[in-house]
Amino acid sequence: MRTENEVQDRIRFLLSKELDHQVATLCSRVPQNCQYNHRQPLDIRKEIEGEPNINYNRIAETNAVPIGLCMLGASDPLQWNGTICEDPIDAQRCLQFDLVTTKEVLIENFNNQIKDFDWVIQFLPEVYGLLWALGSEAMPKLPWWKRFWFRLMRIRPDPLSIPLLK
Question: Structure pTM?
Answer without folding.
Answer: 0.76
